[in-house]
Amino acid sequence: MAPHSEFETTPSPRRELSSLCGRPDPKDRLVCCRRSRGRSVVLSVRGEADAFTLPVWRQEIAEAAEDARAKGGGLIVDTTRLNFLSWRTLATLAEDAERFGREGVPVYLVNTSFTVFRLAGADARVARLPIHSTVVSALTRLELGRRGSPPQLGTRHQQVRTAVADPRTSGREDGYSAANGRGSG
């Protein structure tokens, strides 16, 4: 039998009961794993982040931000294992990230989806949310911010280095183009 991943969860009896009784539970569709990395908190999410799971999403983000505040660090929200991330959920994260940032808790999103970058180019709130391609790059940026280099509050998501050819990016393999608002084209 293969070792268990840190992201695997065992359904609680309440979850099993809610599913058997026919009452949908948003926690069945959005699973969160919170862990500490130094003074920072990494919140990894799996499943679907949509209107149905939005209350759970916001609660988990708020609790993780409070943990990060207590440690004197930042919050990294890793969405690379989500099956679906709605625009509304992403916009809510961006709004909450601004508020937490004013309260001293920088928030970074980890995501590699071209759709998210297109949304960032179209929505000013999302454009202000720092987006990284890996948890390591987000942690590095947080650490640099603590050492005196100001954290990038960026509208230009320069940290993302996904080398995938996409015809929508004017043929450039690095995903940057003037058309999608990332880079100089």
TrEMBL record:
- Classification via Gene3D superfamilies: STAS domain (3.30.750.24)
The residues covered by the STAS domain are 41-142
CDD domains for the chain: STAS_anti-anti-sigma_factors (cd07043)
Pfam families xrefs: STAS
- Which intervals of the chain are annotated as region Disordered? 1-21, 146-185
Q: Which residues form a coiled coil?
A: none
State the source organism's domain of life: Bacteria
Please identify the protein, giving its name as recorded.
Anti-anti-sigma factor
Name the source organism.
Nocardia cyriacigeorgica
UniProt lineage: Bacteria, Bacillati, Actinomycetota, Actinomycetes, Mycobacteriales
